[in-house]
Amino acid sequence: MKIFKSLSLLALVTLVSITISCGPGDDDGPTDKEVLVEALTGSWTLDASNSQFANTELDGSGIGVTFSETGFSLSGGITTYVSGGTYTVTDAGAITDVAVNIAASNDLELKGTPSFTINGAKDTITIVFSTQEASGRVSGLGDYKLVFNKAS
Predict the structure, then answer these.
(1) Strands, E, within 17-81: which ranges?
(2) What are the tens digits of pLDDT across the range 77-112?
(3) Model's pTM, two decimal places?
(4) Residues 46 and 65: beta-carbon distance below 8 Å
(5) Which of 9, 29, 112, 150 could form a disulfide with 123 if both were Cys (CB 3.0 to 4.6 A apart)?
């Protein structure tokens, strides 16, 4: 009888241990950061009709962009003025520490702090920044507003 009680107690303890270890996990779904990084990744197209290109002759055609977890890279004619930028995606799913990379030139420089916003649906990104003269240049000076729409 003693052996039966001991085996029953052992079986009960084992069952409780297994039940506790197989309980609900910590997987509550993706974090806010993971959701935003996933939204950023993919194809984006420039919305030229809602964008602004400072004092340039750009019309938006041929401008491409690639976003990642840490920044963006531009292609096309705009790279004469700006090549891309960097940012930080916080654990709370926010974009901070935005920097814009002015093209390798000594005659344009960033003016103020750039802004980077993504709408609630995470399908439109707006990057706003201004440049100022560093030494006698006129082309490329002024305000930029680059609006990108999620393509896929």
Answers:
(1) 44-46, 52-53, 64-67, 71-75
(2) 999 899 999 999 999 999 999 999 988 666 788 899
(3) 0.77
(4) yes
(5) 150
Give residue 97's region: left, alpha or beta (phi > 0; psi -120 to 50).
left
Query: Exposed (0-12), middle (13-18) or buried (19+): which is 52, by Cβ within 10 Å?
Result: middle
127: how many CB neighbours lie within 10 A of its CB?
25
Judge contact between 74 and 60, C-beta under 8 A: no
CA 47 to chain centre: 18
Tell me the pLDDT tens digit for each residue of 23-64. 555 568 999 999 999 999 888 999 999 999 998 899 999 999
Dist CA 103 CA 3 (whole Å) = 81
Euclidean distance between CA atoms 82 and 127, whole angstroms: 12
Let me know how many helices (H) and strands (E) the chain has, helices first: 2, 9
- Give the single-character DSSP code of 97: E
